[in-house]
Amino acid sequence: ALQEAGKACWASLELRHDRVYRVFARMVLNDVSNLCVVGGDASQVMRQHVKAGSVANVCINFPEPPHHSGSVTAENALHLLTADFFLNGVWPALVPPRGESPGGKLTIYSDNHQYCGTLARTLAALRGPGGERVFESVRGAECSGVGDEAATFEDVDGVRLYHGIP
Questions:
Q1: What pLDDT, in 10s, does the model give residues 15-50?
Q2: Cβ contact 165:151 at 8 Å
Q3: Cα–Cα distance for residue pair 31/6, rounded to 1 Å
């Protein structure tokens, strides 16, 4: 956020109080004026307090998978990144209010490849009211990694799942 002061506004949304405090303390100590720190449940905040079409990018960093056991069939009633959350919480915030395209970008960072594959399949299956895909991967220039290492990706039902260092 600090690097984009005067150009963009950022928000940090955390559920856990210790994480809210940590981000807030860093914001104050580094005099970051374009960051808002919000404590709350993302499923409620995104649906009830974020204006439709008001978000350019959503970044989800290292989400907690529901299947700690490694089994994709395991369930957790408190799991956040569900089809309902993406369709009714994230998508409306990213899509311009009158439905013009393109909307904003969704990026999920994780070191759990199995979980990322599950999320990619969830996103690929989502459809809007007209049957259109809700989320599509950005096409065009290839993403490159750090140094000489080029980022690679696999196609998961039409959603790009990148590997390597962003």
A1: 999 999 999 999 999 999 999 999 999 999 999 999
A2: yes
A3: 13
